């Protein structure tokens, strides 16, 4: 495997080593670390035990000395997103971890038990008259005016009395750069500032980046971004500096619930599979792994997730595909179009000569 | 799984009924917003997102730098080809105009490209590596020799030195001119920007055609009409190719074609089509008159410039709404589940 074969793959589409697309057994070796190199490392973010404490965000900012920004990535601005407890909003140049927060509810067929509430002697739920209909007995009237049960049930689903009881849950998930097997940012970087480390992660070299911004447009997850006042791009390095000294990344070290687990990728994958099996056997029917599948559009990722809902609920793309998969077809089209231009120019000259 | 193609599993919904579940259809009256589930509109697909936030990042490429670069590079590239064939068929004025356009366009496009960098002083870092997987890297190695050859040819054309070197430089520029005009289609398409990537095999033809319309138009505006026949022909053929290819981009990709019709990019595209079609028509009708050549050449160049702005802005718009990411990907997953090839790219990689 040399750079020549990469050139061939990008232009012709003949790609036996899966350099553009498909599973890759050893991504570091493919990148040129042919001799002894560490095993590929990664994050397994188990969102089922995330408590949304944002210790990962803080640890990341502290260790990497990232500037403050608001929920739209504006630097040195203090701003609340106004949508939830999530005031980070998104991953960006200054936020390399982002804890998503989603409040969900669902209707439950089984009614909640209605006994035990003082003064509540109604036999069934669901037939409580509206407070303003005037045909209430005195107890219910008092209840309606004092407790305002109808209004309570609107925003307190645990005491919902409207017939269709509600369950509520909070989804929290710490998002991060995925360190893809086929990383779009790395593929399109024209300066070589982005590179694959010996650990199989993807890192930007700040002293090389010239701020062309191609990686920003190429990332299917919307992770990497440009720091406007600096001009260069920044993203999670999986604490490359700590890894080289044998330390865990800051976020995984700070995580109090082991929602963020760091380790060798194959070991994490086995752990995740076991965890998924456990959850499913416990009846958590919506649990699924995201980014675990090595035959997906980016060849599997180095930082994968256990989610409790569809990926887009957390702001993740449901079926990302690395853009360079289609690059051979694009070069072919560009070549044909260039040939067409010469053909048109020659035709233009010849046809005007005949007159 | 319940409901539309992307409803969350097991009946879980955003608790406050906020912007998490959205519909693609136009927003109805405020009063009916609560009763979302009542009326199902045609083409009204429900999808989920994280508080309506965008998923892919909006490119940080600046306007007008990048659309201008696309236009200038295209016009320069096609002019250099025109100049070379005009030189070989002995049309000195057309050759001269083509070379000057190519040289001027090349220099200005380099300026636009460098100005767009976050760290312009580091533009030479582009030449550290050659990466076929990066259209910007390949483009650098197209633009650099083109800029050198076209710039030098234009300079000696102005100074009147070294006639032989001039012809050689002109041919070198013409060799890189075509790729310079069409690689920019790959530059935009090889991204996660939904509306650009969807048109990845068509954009090079749009830009190639648009480049010929602009290059031919500019050349015929500055060349005596009796010598400008090739420029007129190239401009009309280029305009036709641009219109046909752009029509496919605007209609082949379902939801991802939508940004080309709406808002600012839609206005750009409509203006571009009007200018290009009018310019091509006027070239045929009045291209042999001085005023006609100038007017139609200007219209064609304007049409080409507006096309670049329209395509650029449409891509930008497609990153800002999560529906352009979620819905096509969901539909692709559904096709894959049904055992159909999910898209052309997938079919290709399966047959490898």
How would you summarize what this structure contains?
In chain A, 29% of the residues lie in helices and 15% in strands.
Written overview of the protein:
- The complex is a heterodimer of chains A (355) and B (352).
- Chain A is of the alpha+beta class and 355 residues long.
- Helix content of chain A is 29%, strand content 15%.
- Among the domains of chain A are: 38-56 and 175-321, Alpha-Beta Plaits; 111-163, no CATH class; 329-355.
- Chain A has helices at residues 3-12, 27-30, 55-64, 138-146, 149-155, 184-188, 214-218, 240-244, 250-254, 265-281, 327-353, and strands spanning 41-46, 97-108, 165-176, 194-196, 202-204, 225-226, 233-234, 260-264, 288-290, 303-307.
- Chain B has 352 residues and is mainly alpha-helical.
- Chain B has eleven helices and three strands; from the N terminus they run βββααααααααααα.
- Chain B has a two-stranded antiparallel ribbon with strand order 2-3.
- The longest helix of chain B is centred in the last third of the chain and has 31 residues, at 290-320.
Q: Extract low-pLDDT stretches of chain B.
A: 1-8, 26-42
Oligomer: heterodimer
Helicity range of chain A: 25-40%
Helical run tally of chain A: 11
H and E order of chain A: HHEHEHHEHEEHEEHHEHEEH
Mean pLDDT of chain A: 85
Supply the helix-strand structural class of chain A.
Answer: alpha+beta
What would you give as the CATH superfamily of the largest domain in chain B?
Formate dehydrogenase/DMSO reductase domain
